[in-house]
Write a structure and sequence with these properties.
Layout: H1 13-25, H2 30-61, H3 73-76
């Protein structure tokens, strides 16, 4: 079961008015917009953390090796 907690925010009046208009156009509430935004933010952060951990594992397990560098920085940038 998921328990909801109340949250008090202070927002500039012009931002709140515009948010209310957007919410009305979407037939929802400002509260629902904020809740959806925060949920998306947490999901995105979780996906990024999982991807970082998977990348670390792939790097550790990789058997790829880099050869010797045969170019100089100046050659690479036509200097």
């Amino acid at each position: 079961m998921c328990w909801m907690k109340n949250l008090t925010l202070r927002v500039e009046e012009d931002i709140l008015q515009k948010a209310r208009k957007i919410a009305a156009e979407r037939t929802t509430s400002v509260n629902a917009l904020v809740r959806e935004y925060l949920s998306d933010l947490v999901r995105q952060q979780s996906r990024q953390e999982i991807a970082r951990k998977e990348l670390v594992v792939l790097c550790r397990e990789s058997t790829a090796r880099m050869g010797h560098r045969t170019w100089t920085r100046d050659e690479l940038h036509d200097r």
